[in-house]
């Protein structure tokens, strides 16, 4: 029975429970996923190409250790025995971590990033990495080291990015959970493209260490899964305070990771601000608009009070672009100077833009970011969640670096088509992409739900209720 459920894409929580009850061993669960990887993953020239750096021997050794640990009666972590692949921009001690860049093709870190350390401690069985764009820059997953990740729903389409390998691996049933990160939409965009759930947590919810700047961040780690409940399970492991991360929120992770309520009850009486474009701040493809509009109607049919409303985020575009350029130059300016031809042109241009910023530019961006956060706080006094598209377009052709236009409007650069996600980024609020439907071609489309800063658990409950209402929960 468990084998059948796993093959059908059962939940990570159900798999972990089956291992804990000894209905299936960690080794057996791993072999089921390795079979799925062999069927779907392929390589850089064919197949989904979501899992890179697959190490079958080391994975089997890890599963054997997990089973021995359980047989000895030792305490089990909440993810004990679950196969897991780490995003290839997250440091994983002893495993090659390339960041999708030829400059790091042979890099093997000697320390885990803190969220990876926590996932290891929770009992996962590591099997490899998930693919990412070069240095995690861009929302289409391709790089010179591992090639291009394709969308499991249609191999001619992009899986999104930068956590595109993670989202595609989930959608194809190769892993039950996946980690990712998000600056301008890198959890939400691939979740929308691949028909899975991706949460950008509140800033400070998932602490990070080691980092160059502990006191100010725009990007954050976060979870991806096939259901909101499984996202909660992984968030419960990733989240929580740590003395190495002084800006972390203080809520213990286990409070976030408990099973979510069943059914659509969380939609009853919910005050939803629904907006297709945040007051004409970005264009939206017609096929995406139809799906997001239906999601609003679905919430209303299930008892939500849906209002056409949006916060004023008119300064968010300039604010995000300034802070992104500043962070990229701080992270990669010296690397680019040493290797002027070693980084893809679009990213190199962004890094150089950061060098041209003045102190006044950065000060203006931080002042605007503070004001945007204050506006959101006031906005959420009247509404419980904001609903809008997670991505402005459906999955585009895999050969393109980014779409040339959205709803007939030309795209300025490789960031421009992601405004629906990155305008939310600079508010610091938690945002989740939930599968909402498909285009006539069968390409997935997600709706983005946003809640007040710190309300991650409440946001997950609403996401789970929307899944139940739409029948998409698995």
From TrEMBL:
Coiled coil: none annotated. Residues 39-460 form the Amidase domain. SUPFAM superfamilies: Amidase signature (AS) enzymes. It comes from the Bacteria. PANTHER family: INDOLEACETAMIDE HYDROLASE, TRANSAMIDASE. This is Amidase. It comes from Nocardioides nanhaiensis.
């Amino acid at each position: 029975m468990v084998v059948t459920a796993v093959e059908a894409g059962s939940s990570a929580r159900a798999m972990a429970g089956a291992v804990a009850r000894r209905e299936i061993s960690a080794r057996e669960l791993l072999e089921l996923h390795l079979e799925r990887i062999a069927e779907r993953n392929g390589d850089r020239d064919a197949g989904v190409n979501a899992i890179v750096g697959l190490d079958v021997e080391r994975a089997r050794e890890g599963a054997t250790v997990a089973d021995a640990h359980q047989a000895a009666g030792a305490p089990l972590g909440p993810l004990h025995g679950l196969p897991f692949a780490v995003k290839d921009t997250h440091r994983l001690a002893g495993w090659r971590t390339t960041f999708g860049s030829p400059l790091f093709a042979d890099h093997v870190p000697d320390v885990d990033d803190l969220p990876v350390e926590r996932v290891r401690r929770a009992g996962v069985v590591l099997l490899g990495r998930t693919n990412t764009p070069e240095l995690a820059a861009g929302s289409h997953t391709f790089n010179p080291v591992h090639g291009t990740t394709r969308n499991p729903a249609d191999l001619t389409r992009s899986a999104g990015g930068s956590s595109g390998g993670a989202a595609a691996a989930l959608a194809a049933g190769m892993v039950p959970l996946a980690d990712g990160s998000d600056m301008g939409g890198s959890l939400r965009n691939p979740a929308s493209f691949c028909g899975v759930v991706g949460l950008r947590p509140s800033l400070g919810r998932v602490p990070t260490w080691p980092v160059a700047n502990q006191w100010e961040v725009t990007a954050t780690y976060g979870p991806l899964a096939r259901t909101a409940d499984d996202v909660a399970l992984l968030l419960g492991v990733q989240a929580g305070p740590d003395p190495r991360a002084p800006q972390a929120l203080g809520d213990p992770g286990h409070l976030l990771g408990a099973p979510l309520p069943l059914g659509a009850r969380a939609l009853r009486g919910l005050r939803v601000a629904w907006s297709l474009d945040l007051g004409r701040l970005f264009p939206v493809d017609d096929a995406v608009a139809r799906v997001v509009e239906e999601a609003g109607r679905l919430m209303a049919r299930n008892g939500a009070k849906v209002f056409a409303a949006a916060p004023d985020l008119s300064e968010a575009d300039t604010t995000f672009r300034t802070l992104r350029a500043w962070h990229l130059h701080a992270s990669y300016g010296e690397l680019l100077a040493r290797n002027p031809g070693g980084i893809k042109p679009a990213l190199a241009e962004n890094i150089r833009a950061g060098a041209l910023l003045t102190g006044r530019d950065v000060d203006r961006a931080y002042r605007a970011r503070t004001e945007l956060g204050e506006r959101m706080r006031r906005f959420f006094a009247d509404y419980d969640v904001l609903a809008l598209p997670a991505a402005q377009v459906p999955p585009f052709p895999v050969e393109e670096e980014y779409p040339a236009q959205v709803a007939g409007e030309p795209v300025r650069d490789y960031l421009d088509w992601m405004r629906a996600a990155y305008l939310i980024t600079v508010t610091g609020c938690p945002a989740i992409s939930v599968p909402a439907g498909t285009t006539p071609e069968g390409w997935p489309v997600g709706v983005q739900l946003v809640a007040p800063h710190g309300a991650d658990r409440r946001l997950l409950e609403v996401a789970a209720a929307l899944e139940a209402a739409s029948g998409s929960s698995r």
